[in-house]
């Protein structure tokens, strides 16, 4: 990786956020983006056709930050300050749906939030004001369609759509909790997609997450997590990255056919 720091912030419209096991996507330069919530290091990757794509390692390059302490607001505001409009993300998840096994890849369609202590919004009254954000379509239908089309070309198999439960972490969930989530209609469980997806929507950015299933949830098929979950991520990482790149550099992206940029209602 080229560690040269750019003196001026360039504008980049497309970004990838890497979750557990996805800490870089190729040769890049770095930019340090300052926000009111803190500074963020973002890699800038130039593709073979000259397109620049921002890459942000959600947990840090060495997985140094646990899920409940990630500075989600700084991360998302840094991408917004770069000019980002379109974001693909990965997330390592456990499965509570017997049809989705470890090693499978799913595309998130909705979420349930069971986090407890995280700042969930940019709008907390006072100077920032008060606002509500629509959640009828948390994930961008345009990015979803482009990713599925690109996956057909790269050969990446998508097992299906999934409802995601976000828990606080860093502990895994109990068998009783998983039983409850499953009864509520959950397919997969993770620790990082909320508030990331909400903040993206507040900032008017198109956002779509791909879930990489690394394990069975506690109590499902009697499984105990006794392996390194990054091993499974590694098996899928290259093909997922290729699919992201194709989706971001293929047909021109537009925000005209979704409501992502107009989901915020300020009061």
| Main beta sheet strand tally, sense and closure | 5 strands, mixed, barrel
Mean residue pLDDT: 89
* Proportion in helices: 10-25%
Strand content: 25-35%
Structural class: alpha/beta
Walk me through this protein's architecture.
The protein has a single domain (14-266), classed as Nucleoside phosphorylase domain (Rossmann fold), CATH 3.40.50.1580. Helices cover 25% and strands 28% of the residues. The chain has helices at 72-82, 141-154, 175-184, 193-202, 229-249, and strands spanning 14-18, 28-35, 38-46, 52-57, 86-95, 105-114, 131-133, 160-167, 188-190, 206-216, 264-266. Strands 5-9-8-6-10 form a five-stranded mixed beta barrel. Strands 7-11 form a two-stranded antiparallel sheet. A hairpin with a 5-residue loop joins strand 3 and strand 4. The longest helix has 21 residues, at 229-249. The protein is globular and about 50 Å long. Keywords: Glycosyltransferase, Purine salvage, Transferase. It catalyses: a purine D-ribonucleoside + phosphate = a purine nucleobase + alpha-D-ribose 1-phosphate. This is Purine nucleoside phosphorylase. Pathway: Purine metabolism; purine nucleoside salvage.
């Amino acid at each position: 990786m080229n560690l040269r720091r750019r003196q001026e912030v360039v504008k980049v419209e497309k970004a990838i956020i890497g979750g557990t096991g996805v800490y870089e996507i190729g040769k890049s330069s770095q930019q340090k983006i300052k926000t009111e919530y803190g500074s963020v290091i973002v890699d800038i990757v130039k593709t073979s056709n000259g397109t620049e794509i921002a890459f942000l390692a959600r947990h840090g390059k060495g997985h140094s930050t646990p899920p409940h302490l990630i500075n989600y607001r700084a991360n998302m505001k840094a991408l917004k300050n770069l000019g980002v409009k379109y974001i693909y993300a990965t997330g390592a998840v456990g499965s509570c749906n017997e049809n989705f096994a470890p090693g499978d890849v799913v595309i998130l369609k909705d979420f349930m939030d069971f986090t407890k202590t995280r700042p969930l919004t940019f709008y907390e009254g006072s100077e920032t004001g008060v606002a509500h954000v629509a959640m009828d379509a948390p994930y961008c239908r345009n990015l979803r369609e482009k990713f599925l089309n690109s996956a057909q070309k790269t050969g990446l198999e998508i097992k299906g759509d999934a409802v995601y439960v976000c828990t606080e972490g860093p502990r895994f969930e109990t068998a009783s909790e998983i039983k409850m989530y499953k009864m509520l209609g959950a397919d997969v469980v993770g620790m990082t997609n909320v508030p990331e997806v909400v903040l993206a929507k507040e900032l008017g950015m198109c956002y779509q997450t791909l879930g990489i299933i690394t394990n069975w949830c506690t109590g499902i098929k009697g499984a105990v997590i006794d392996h390194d979950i990054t091993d499974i991520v590694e098996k899928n990482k290259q093909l997922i990255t290729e699919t992201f790149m194709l989706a971001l550099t293929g047909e021109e992206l537009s925000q005209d056919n979704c409501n992502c940029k107009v989901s915020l209602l300020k009061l």
